Amino acid sequence: MRTIKEYLRIGIAALALCLLTACAEQLKDVREVMELPAIYPDYTGVTIPATLAPLNFSYDGPAERIDVVIEGTRGGKIHLQGKTARIPAAKWQSLLQQNKGGQLNVTVVAKFDDGWRRFVPFPIYISDAPIDYGLVYRLVAPGYEVYSQMGIYERDLSSFSQKPLIENTLIASSCVNCHSFRQTDSEYVSLHVRGKQGGTVLKTNGETDILDLKTAETLGRGVYPYWHPSGRFVAYSQNDTRQVFHARDDKRVEVFDLSSDLTVYDVVNNKILTSPLLSTPGFETYPAFSPDGQSLYFCLADFQNMPAAYTDVQYNLCRIAFDAETGRFGEQVDTLVCAAAMGKSVSFPRPSYDGKYILYTLADYGNFSIWHKEADLWLLDLRTGENRPLTEVNSDDTESYHSWSSNSRWFVFSSRRDDGLYTRLYLASIDADGKVTKPFKLPQQDGRRQDPSFYSFNIPEFTAAPVELDLREIERDLLSGKRRKAE
Amino acid sequence: MKIDAKDIVVSLLIAILLVMGSFLFFQFAQPYALFFKEQTQLFLFTSEYFLSYLDKPGTLACLVGDFLTQFLYLRGAGALVVSLFLLLEWIMAFAVLKRLGCGTLAPLWALLPVFAEGLFLAQLYYTLAIPVTWLLAMGSFLCYSAIRRRWLALLAGIVSVPFLYSLTGAGMFLFVLLLFLYEIYRRRGLAGAALLILVFAAAYPYLIRSLYLLTATQAYLYPLAQGRYGLSAVVLLLLAVIAVALSSQRDKVTARTFSFHVLWILILGIASFVFAVDKERETNLALASEAYFGNWERVYDLAEKEKQPNALATYYANISLSRRGELGDRLMEFYQPGGAGLFLPVNPEANWFTIFFSSDVHYYLGDMNMAQHSAMLGMIFSPRHRSSRMVKRLAEIHLALGDSAAAEKYLRLLDATLYHKKWAARMRDALYSEQPGDYPWLTQQKERLTTTDRLRRAADYPAALEALLESNPENLPARDYLLSYHLLTKNMPAFKAAFDRYAKTKGAYIPRAYSEALLIYLAATNASEKEFKTYTFDEAVVKAFAEYTALYEEMKGRLEPVRERFEGTYWMYYHFAEVN
Predict the structure, then answer these.
(1) Would the pTM of this model clear 0.95, i.e. be above it?
(2) Which one, out of A152, A266, A328, B488, has a CA that is 20 to 30 A from the CA of A272?
(3) Domain that holds residue B330
(4) Structural domain tally of chain B?
(5) Contact A248 B450 (CB under 8 A)
(6) Helix (H, G, I), strand (E, B), or coil: what is residue B32?
(7) Are B273 and B284 members of one domain?
(8) ipTM score of the complex?
(9) Which of A153, A176, A248, A305 has the highest number of chain B CBs within 10 A, making it the mutation to test binding with B?
């Protein structure tokens, strides 16, 4: 019902705009304040793509209403007034296009008990680097080990439209997770449906199969998928995962593996490929192919008795060669980042598709960084070997899962900075020189802090085009119990 | 049209009796079921929230039903809302039956679907969206049947299928079936078209279900959570069939026949309300709701009065005993299903109803991590995945933790409600108060927080309680829960060790259940007299233990003779209760 909803949204926005325009107040006795306005979300000085949805915001304080002027350095102007800044979509898009490569200056005048105050204008930079069509993520309540309603959704980045791709109500008592695309190509999809009638849904060039990836040799069905750039292979991790709780309230949950290995699924030959180097007694997890397909990056930690030694599990960022022609792995594992030596642990290594960087999460220990407040994003420059924390985007709270846009000029990451409870999505750009800009929160229709969602954004992935899944076919195949069993 | 004064009097009489009967029933026999419905809902006055109703069929029915559900928070309002619903349903059913040819008996027959509705209104999954669905469907049918021009009626019938499905969900089927009956038996001009509309309606939810991401069953039933909740519509349809079949005889009803109908419908009505009563569930909900309202004395009185043998009732009884410092003394006076009466299980096998209430004890004890875990699960497992009660609990948790960013997340949501915004304002005052002494309840909660860390499984309650006691040895509720947990799981060595560590004070009074357990342990381990004397036992308890032991041995494990004299002792529990 996306269309009806969209029409209604537009109608409500138009109505609100008419009402607001009709009720606009004259600015009188305005006092100048030599500071930036406290707005939520904080969009001051951010860099955005030229096709992004309006950056609606509100004054984060006791202002009765705000008067906002958005002016492009290359022309164009939007003036609005209301309790929040709800920017008309069409005018916004036109303003962005007009100022592509330039900047917008936003002047906020807020009305308080004692009158109007004008704050220092802030810039919003319009990048000339395009961004992909959308983001796909899972919305799931932070419900720990049991799950109720959840789903995988697709968000059009140029609007506020969010379309469900699959919800777990499709198959009773199921869990949907681990969606993955081949370098943002939505024609190549891997996602899991867990539960009695579960399976791995694999879509390759219009063909959809339900796989059973469990073999006698593997630990489990395979999670954390990552596509080979050729679309012929998908790397999976098999994890025997457990969860326990902290007694103290600042850490909450500890998730760890009792054992874990890596495999690669050969889509064409329906075969599981592995190597003794990827199924050692240690813990291997989070595989990711290099953009040229010749290497497989992953996280590796020494074996520890769990959960007793949970703080001693520290993953390094490693690499093994992979030959797509023969499906063979190299004879040695290289360590790219020896995090254990720093007393830290790597998770979610994600190489940029231009081959320049690996973006990863660094925490004190373990691989489930989402529950680690200290978890931050780090960037490894593969050309220079420079390895640094991304201070431009990190916060005091958790930064965790992240992925790259198809042109490697944007990345999205999940962060708990808003309230420490629910993960929200932030985006940032990186230019040709490796300069990373201030992150901005995924634009929301309602720019207030009053977020009615009880769901966290999980596993955000860019998609170059809308994802098309034949849900009827998937439902029928899942219920039929027929699975393509991997060999 | 001639209106018979007698008919008006009869109808008015029925309406008054129906509203009164229903109000009295829901106000005095099942009030807590209605309170609970409000607790499992969170109605926000925000555009995003309203738009979220477009995600599933039955948009209008669900929106109106949920809007009205928020009034169930007020004492008395629930019974009034439900009674007005039943009255409206009766009026609409009456009008529908009349339209289909039913005569003098229409006001009586119209009561039958209302009784069917009454059967379910106190059920946990039965939302107010369901009666709204039927009302919209019946109203649509009445509008449809008023259309005189055939082509217009045909057009309206076809258009109504998708339109009504999006607005009412399963109510569309009631409309279409009534339309079919009307066209086949009453108007007799559009029978073929009516059949086509029927086929279209049967196929429509299946065809459109992927847009709503529903399974076939869900698509046909939405917003009914269970098929049986459609009973009132089925009853109405059956009556409609009978009405059209008997329409030629409608004026032949004698006073005797009418009286007979009054009698059997009255019996059926009383029977339906009697069947609707679930005293055990209502008492459980009473305990849970009074706990939510903070009326712990009422919880204590109810628990004592009802003494229901189920885990949920025991759970609230135990909290109320603990709040009065009586848990150690009176533990065994209540039904105790092992540890499940102290902590409600939260795992994939547990039902959402118990998960929903499971945070209360963790919050009370100061284990905020598990309180949050339970509250989040309680919310997402509730039928609409949002709950005013759980949002309040989550706000309280973060208030106690002093985490203003997280507390504000929930308080802001409550700001957008009709009846919880005042509560949110009070909590915000407490959150930002510079004089914590003004909020002793908050100070007490903060004092109970855990400051030491350890890893534990969700169900490892002793580990959590020990962490609380290590952080604050004065946390008496945690101490009593730890000791009681060991007693109820019959882990005597752990009980003895915990007692010695956390509760043993020279010369201090030992609560009854603890005394009884210590005597068992000391006897079983042949403790020395010196050790025995380190505990201050009540002589009467020691004497009773000797008598109990003698009798138990004499009766060779037979329950009844021992129970006669020693019911309510820990000794009985230790020897005869089966703990899973």
Answers:
(1) no
(2) A152
(3) 280-440
(4) 3
(5) yes
(6) helix
(7) no
(8) 0.85
(9) A248
